[in-house]
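Design request, tokens follow.
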């Protein structure tokens, strides 16, 4: 994995460290990051995204505490060997559920028809 695999949105409502942990969770669940795969260093991620290294360190620490990552002496952080290669579709959908609920709430507040929102979402997904 290289630092470009992560997408950081400085103006998003979620703190950057949370964005990193959430993305790592999804990348591991989908099998894009495999058990034992070494992550880029804190310095590499911070430099690539022009963010504070302490932010990346905090994210890696949280992911380690959650059991997503493990510290390898002399190599840095890697995807925990105990992680399953790919989670089931329903498990991956469960990771997306909070964002879907928020999207539905926003669409209802804006009084947008479901078919319009679904067409836009399909376009964003590339279908």
């Amino acid at each position: 994995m290289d630092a470009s695999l992560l997408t950081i949105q400085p103006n998003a409502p979620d703190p950057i460290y949370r964005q990193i942990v959430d993305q790592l969770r999804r990348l591991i669940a989908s099998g894009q990051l495999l058990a034992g795969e070494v992550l880029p260093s804190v310095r590499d991620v911070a430099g690539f995204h022009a963010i504070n290294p302490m932010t990346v360190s905090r994210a890696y620490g949280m992911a380690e505490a959650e059991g997503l990552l493990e510290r390898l002496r002399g190599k840095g952080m890697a995807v925990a060997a105990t992680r399953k290669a790919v989670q089931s579709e329903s498990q991956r959908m469960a990771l997306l559920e909070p964002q879907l609920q928020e999207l539905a709430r926003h669409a209802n507040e804006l009084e947008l028809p479901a078919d319009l929102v679904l067409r836009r979402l399909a376009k964003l997904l590339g279908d």
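Comment from the thread starter after seeing the answer: thanks! The longest helix spans residues 89-109.
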